[in-house]
Amino acid sequence: MPIPKIQSGIAVVAGILLLAAGLKSQMPAVGPVWEYSSVTGSVTGPNRAAICYATANGCRNEKIFAGDPGTEDSLMIAAAKLGEKGWELTSVSDVSTNSKPERVLYFRRLQSVLNRGDSPGSR
Q: Domain extents for the chain?
């Protein structure tokens, strides 16, 4: 007795779905890839801030910015530089090192083809 065309079609579709599910389970999970950076600056004392681009080996491409004496401009200068390049502020922390209060601003951005050229690992 010949198999009706509808049953054959259902069997083909079911086979394709099973094959797709099997292949999907063997593929690695791919999600967004983030880059991280931070700006560290003194809350009191010298008006300087440093940008650290995070890499697997630690900080890279640290840049120092100095603001006007008696102001806290350096943190904002450094933060604005990162913002212009697509970095997003994620959190802020106040820490004390050697009894000197410092502020750390943490940033992230999605790594993409567009900003790969100014990433720390690309130079």
A: 34-122
